[in-house]
Amino acid sequence: MSHYDDYLRWLYRGGRPRSFARVQNTVGAVVFGAGIWPRRLAALEVPGRRSGRIITFPVVIADWEGGQYLVAMLGERTNWVQNLHAADGRAVLRHGRREAVRLVDVPAEGRPAILRRYLAIAPGARPHIPAGVDASDAELQQVAATTPVFEIVTAADAVRRATATGG
Question: What is the CB neighbour count within 10 angstroms for residue 39?
Fold first, then answer.
């Protein structure tokens, strides 16, 4: 592991962002949300489960087989995951414009390939996920059991799915 990996782990020691990580996340959310960076970087807005206040933070969107996904690199106990569950999966993604989305839990058996893609495009997440880009399917399946992955479903996606199923 490199010093940079140690630094990234230090930023989120105990699975929660330290104050400097919160500052970096705030700046990242502003920049990513403005649409300045590549499309795979965005800001996610989720209402706080206790306060109801909108919490915004930067995310990396993993694309896989025509879908788009978010990964909770710090695991199930991450605040944004708990807030998302309390909001019944409703959130807003910002990348130049705001888009209401629904984030749907991907079952653990469907996560390994998405995790592999996420690790390939999100180097800052690698120190927090106990499997590398070149991990075996078995290793990724173990990680998948405790690393939440959410499919991003837009309003247009929902209409397409309803039309395809005759609903």
Answer: 11
